[in-house]
Amino acid sequence: MDWTVTDALWGWPPPVLDPAGPYSAQVTTLSWALFALGVVVTAVVIVALWVAIKGPPRWKAKLGGERAIWIGGVAFPGVVLTALLIWGLTLTASLTEPIRGDEMRIRVTGEMWWFRVQYLDADGVVVMQDANEIHIPVDTPVVLELESADVIHSFWVPHLSGKKDMIPGRRTLLRIEADRAGEFGGVCAEYCGGQHALMGFVAVAHEPDAWQAWRADRIATLNRAQSPIAPTAQRNSIDAAGDPAEADIPARYDARRGYDLFMETGCAACHRIAGSEANGMAGPDLTHIASRRTLGAGILPNHRGTLIGWIGDSQSIKPGNRMPSYDRLSADELGHIAAFLELQK
Amino acid sequence: MVSSDRGRAVLATVMAMGATGVISACKDPVETRYEPSDAAISRGLAAIEKAGCGSCHEIPGVDWPKGRLGPSLKGFDDVGLIAGQLPNRPGVLASFIRNAPAIKPGSPMPPMPVSEAEAQDIASYLYGLDSD
User: CA-based Rg of chain A, rounded to a whole angstrom?
Assistant: First the structure.
């Protein structure tokens, strides 16, 4: 409930040095090798500088000769950088291997400023949609098909893999895999406009049992009847959530009224909720909004307060994002819509 | 006219005391006001950021977000009534944060997912904004 990307990427060790899977382990190895080599080169330069200023005249002469430039300026960097390039590309080649056909596939599309997530079957057909949250099983390689809807973004979950650009008009591939269950923060790593810094997502790795349960739950939602609103009993319990004191107050917000408002106010023009008439594709899919850890693309905890704040005035929170602030709605109307969305688990 | 001077001095003193009395009726003297500890204040800021209070409120010390759906909490310690209705005391404020509609029916602020202790820390932070 109080999870945001900032918290997930904060602290020590930095996630890039704390790999949670085989692909990120390769990136970590490369990072340490580059760091070690950088230390060696810096040390050599410092020693050479000392020799050039205070060293004995014979050493100074050697350092100033043409031979030193051929060795230190051409041969050394030429050999080392070429070797490093070959090693680095070989080491990380598996991150971008082409699709074999038996892997799990997810298409992630960068949008200003959020991530569209679509789970694909073996033929590349979209099975389930979501946004700003990617669920994967542990110990299973997953191929991400990265695309962009507008400008260049870059997809990065440092715990699970390297960075990969999302380029308009092209599809790039990136493999991720987690070897332990957990929630891993991800961000856009390529400046993409005013709210680039507020474009994050969560990758959730499940143990096999939890994964099966999650998947069954999602498929059940896809196959449900044509009403996204839960029975009355559940609706009334929303208001009592959290605090026993509130159980005494009659339910104030009505999810059915919220559903009507969702349709009347225009939310459905941009947002989709599977099993309802809401079928907009411009904004994030809201079929499972209540089960998401965050709101606004990894930036806010997801609870009724932040939901009301976001719907009523998202432009104060994330200026320039494509959702208008619904300042024409009353506090009660915002509450009804929030109550409705809280049922979309 | 010694007695008249003394009379004026007494009158001035009484008036000054009266003025102090009027002021103190509005507000507790500074030294007796609620003084939260620094630890509580910093825990309060962390709780505010964790709960995302900034989605709806502008709060000094919180760089982002600065929501404007709800009132700004600038100078909150000097506000007379919480939500225009409840006495602005630490205990009341903490209860209000946890479950606003329960103590002010009709409040558009929903109950917040914070613990009792966190609510008290958040109240401490808001009182710690005192700049006078």
Answer: 26
> In angstroms, rounded to a whole number, what is the distance separating the alpha carbons of residues B89 and A28?
52
pLDDT digits (tens, 9 = 90+) for A34-86: 999 999 999 999 999 999 999 898 888 888 889 988 998 899 999 999 999 99
| Domain boundaries, position A251 | 232-341
Q: Are A318 and A242 in the same domain?
A: yes
* A324 in contact with chain B, both atoms CB, cutoff 8 A: no
ipTM score of the complex?
Answer: 0.79
Structurally, chain A folds into a number of domains equal to 2
> Which of chain A's residues have a Cβ under 8 Å away from the Cβ of B51?
2, 301, 303, 305
Interchain contact A309–B (C-beta under 8 A): yes
How far apart are the C-alpha atoms of A331 and A305, rounded to whole Å? 11
Residues A153 and A201 both lie in one domain:
yes
Nearest to A308 among B51, B98, B110 (CB): B110
In chain B, which residue's Cα lies nearest the Cα of A317?
Answer: B65
CATH code, domain with A293: 2.60.40.420
Q: Which of the 8 DSSP states describes residue A316?
A: H
Q: Is A334 part of the contact surface with chain B (CB cutoff 8 Å)?
A: yes
